[in-house]
Amino acid sequence: MNKLSSAKRAQALQMMAEGVSLRAMTRLTGVSRTTLIKLLEDAGRAFSEYQDRALMNLKCKRVQVDEAWAFCYAKQKNVPTAKAAPEGAGDIWTWVGLDADSKLVLSWLVGGRDSEYAMGFMDDLAKRLANRVQLTSDGHKAYLEAVEGAFGGDIDYAMLVKIYGATPGGVTGRYSPPACIGARKLRVEGDPDIKHVSTSYVERQNLNIRMGNRRMTRLTNAFSKKAENHAHMMAIYFMHYNFVRIHQTLRVTPAMAAGVTDKLWEMNDLVAIVEAAESAPKIRGPYKKRAS
Length: 292
Description:
Elements: H1 6-17, H2 22-29, H3 33-54, E1 62-72, E2 90-99, E3 105-111, H4 115-127, E4 134-137, H5 142-151, E5 156-165, E6 179-189, H6 200-212, H7 227-243, H8 254-257, H9 267-279
Parallel strand pairs: 1-4, 4-5
Antiparallel strand pairs: 1-2, 2-3, 5-6
Helix pairs in contact: 1-3, 1-7, 1-9, 3-7, 3-9, 4-5
């Protein structure tokens, strides 16, 4: 891993961010899969730590949140009968908080979809904001307690509850989702502007994730086998999306639009973050006497 050049690292990280599988990357670059996995782990940790520091004191106005589903090792229903299923196997969700104006992903969390993860996600989202915002979520009930706990009354919060049902003559099948036949906008806290109660941008971001992250592609065998590596890949994706990828409508990156940075980043800048993290002094833990 230490002998992998910066150019090769930049090439590999670019491929990861564009949804190329590890085995395909091995064929295209000549870099071993073991080395690519090591790069994935190092980059995931470095990018997660960097964005945790950089995405603070954000002056957003409207924030949309949603969750994207995937699975690790096996689908939830198959975990009980799976052989040697690791910890974290089954359904895995990525919680995403998106600034509706700059399209910046200011917070995300990989894990379950219960109230505990909802509270952790909202606590992280709240600490990154510099002012009161309007927040929109779907009708997931876990948000109610989580938003109350993280923001109290200092938020304008509404839910967009979609109504699903069968449509006459509609296409039916195993992978056909139910049709959305309507939606209700519900005020929950504060005074949200009803015309801006929407989750369209964050739902579009979920499509971006599936298109740009091989582990989220449906009906393939590219799903994550370890929950930790799934989280690392999400960190790489969001780092590339926020700082490197120019948004087609904004004509700048989301990080530039949000004022987080004043320059367009390149892949070499991402490699520099990984290399800086590798060269940083490691803090040794306390000495533990070996048991006799």
